[in-house]
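hiii, so i know i said id send this last week but things got crazy w the move. better late than never?? heres the sequnce for the chain we talked about at the cafe, plus the structure i predicted for it. fair warning i was half asleep when i ran it
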Amino acid sequence: MLRKIKRKIKKNPLDTLLKKAKKENKKTFLLAWNRAFGDISLGLFSVVYRIKEYIPDAKITFLIREDLKDGFELLDGTHFIKVSFWKRYVPFDIHHTLKLLDIDHKKYDVIIDRVDPNYWVKWQISTITPKLKWKKDFDRLADKFDLPKDKVIIAVQPSIETKHSSWREYPIKYYKELFSKAHKDIVFVLLGTEKKEKFDSEIFLIDLRGKTTLLEVLAILKNRCDYFISLDSGILSLFYYLDIDCPIKLLALWGSRDVGVIKQNVKSPNNFEISNKLSNLKKT
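okay and structure toks below
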């Protein structure tokens, strides 16, 4: 409670930093990010937006965990440097990291090792529509997966794949019930990185968990799927804000209205059709 009061009284740290940087003609920024990739759209997009508001010609580089690289490919107007030895949930020292990477810290006018978008750009909720850049070449990434073209393809992400917020999960028994009652014209494609739960091997189920990169998942959703059943996840947060034309129908399962895409409270930049039921799923 006291922390919230202090934050309301105190000047915004990012704005204070940027005002000083602008006054001192500082233009090169290095920001460290070792957290979730869902925050790329829901937080870091607006951090970049804010930096560009103050310093339009700013050069922004992110120092990131290696498995985040696909997500940062979508963040326009920025560069990134991969750190192979960073692990999620493990603290790091940015200056020690730069030394190990043989990168001179003097290349950057401003180095930020603890980015806090939930606080620094909280003002952007219900105001900023994140827009992630999709390169046309990414579409070809879906071609390596031989998904049927004469069926209704429903992508499913059955697990959130994090160590926290277990209330965001959806009971596995309901997925199994859905799969068992599916029409013969429907094929389910399981997406994600971890096979936390086992499902019966059926002709209507294609399990791609652990077999795709993030960009391949997004390419499959964009180019091969008719529906996407998703939890509150990083995949959803990125896909929802891709600046593309995508006719897929989306069903998102939420444990709270105060998180993720719902909390952002702005429309997607593409033409998603939001659905709240799975009846009448037929090939059109």
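btw The chain has a mean pLDDT of 89. thought thatd interest u
miss u guys!!
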